[in-house]
Amino acid sequence: MSKTVLLTAGGTGGHLFPAQALASELIRRGWTVELATDERADKYGTEFPARKVHIVASETIRGRNPITLLKTAFSLFRGTIQSRSVIKTLKPDVVAGFGGYPTFPPMFAARLTGTPSILHEANAVMGRANRLLAKGVTAIATSVPLGDLPGELAAKLVETGNPVRDAVLDAAELAYDAPRAGGEFKLLVFGGSQGARFFSDLVPPSVELLPAEIRSRLSIVQQCRPEDMERVQKFYDGLGVKAECAPFFQDMPQRIAQAHLVFCRSGASSVSELSVLGRPSILVPLPGALDQDQAANAKVLEKAGGAWPIRQVDLHPERLAKEIDRFMNAPEMLVEAARNAKDVAKPDAVKRLADLVEKIANNQGERP
User: Fold this and answer.
1) DSSP 136
2) Looking at the domain assignment, is residue 237 inside a domain?
């Protein structure tokens, strides 16, 4: 008889992509997969291999305003009631959460119903939602070792790595093709929903500062917000620079694999994909994050010699132009970074996580 897993994830790619990878692997193993998330998942939901997507109420905790906190609490309470109903109907063998506040109602409902559960922490620092849920879960899967956790939580940790989608594993078969002297240089720029505006404002004037002979070699693929796309494309066109701008690229793994250098944020999924694909990168952690999770993620690749993190406050057009010029003229540095990034990859993370799911299901809630 087929086992059932209820996956739950925040409605952004960083949360949904690892969940999608696990869903595909469990389906190959004969499992039935269902997904609980929020309305933001519509952008990715058509790609998610779930039998059904359940939209549940949720809200992020913002500030300390009593009225706002009350509204948040009510939304999370409503989502928990909805999730409890879903769990009672589905009777899943395991509930697995991938971070973000939309995971709170289903994971808390799993605790209330006594359903075995797994939290996956993709970042090098445990997020706020996961910290709130950690005590009530059966196991905590991590991408990298997590420190500074109380003994009760540390006993639940299982390092699996961060699962990447099948499309990433397929693209990883493409070896890194170093840029050639005087030849085309492929620069990929993306920043996610919170970072694309910054990159749209920074990269075009940086490219303008490059010497004409360097600029003529560039081939840029850049993610932009819809409202920024036209002005960024026109800027590049005016410079005579080959560029393709879009709000979202469905084939991002292939785009990363084809790049000579990637310029992006350091979200957990991006860092995992860069390592599995083995591509050199300049990483700009999202500033102002309470957990500083992206800064911690970037340090993992920096320590391995696979990336060059730069704080956003330290970036300006002159600095970025200098960095681009430097790397375009030092292909050996890029080759070494590509190799180093791949050395710390965990391409089998999805299999490890699927094994943990099956172990929890077979043990009926016993901790590993």
Assistant:
1) G
2) yes
Mark whether 148 and 215 lie in a shared domain. Answer: no
Q: Are residues 32 and 83 in the same domain?
A: yes
The Cα 125–Cα 351 span in angstroms is 23
If you search the block for the tokens 């800027």, which residue do you land on?
A: 235
**Residue 277 domain boundaries:** 170-343
In this structure, the dihedral spanned by the alpha carbons of residues 18, 21, 25 and 31, taken in order and rounded to 10 degrees, is 70
Bridge partners (DSSP) of residue 117 are: 95
pLDDT by residue for the chain (368 residues), tens only, comes to 689 999 999 877 788 899 999 999 999 999 999 999 987 665 554 578 999 999 998 877 666 778 877 887 888 899 999 999 999 999 999 999 998 888 999 999 999 999 999 999 999 988 888 888 999 999 999 998 887 788 888 899 999 999 999 999 999 999 999 999 999 999 999 987 556 799 999 999 999 999 999 999 999 999 999 999 999 999 999 999 999 999 989 899 999 999 999 999 999 999 999 999 999 999 999 997 667 899 999 999 999 999 999 999 999 999 999 999 999 999 999 999 999 999 999 999 999 999 999 999 998 644 44
Q: In whole angstroms, what is the distance from residue 316 CA to residue 203 CA?
A: 9
Residue 110 located in a structural domain: yes
Residue 367 domain-assigned?
no
**Pairwise CA distance, residues 170 & 277, whole Å:** 9
Identity at 188, one-letter amino acid code: L
26 shares its domain with 109: yes
288 in the same domain as 358? no
d(CA 92, CA 342): 36
Tell me how far apart the alpha carbons of residues 119 and 99 are, in angstroms, rounded to a whole number: 8
Q: Is there a single domain that holds both residue 325 and residue 355?
A: no
Q: Residue 49 is part of a domain; what is its CATH number?
A: 3.40.50.2000
From the list 63, 125, 160, the residue with the least C-alpha distance to 359 is 160
pTM of the model: 0.89
Kindly tell me the number of DSSP H helices and DSSP E strands found in the chain: 16, 13
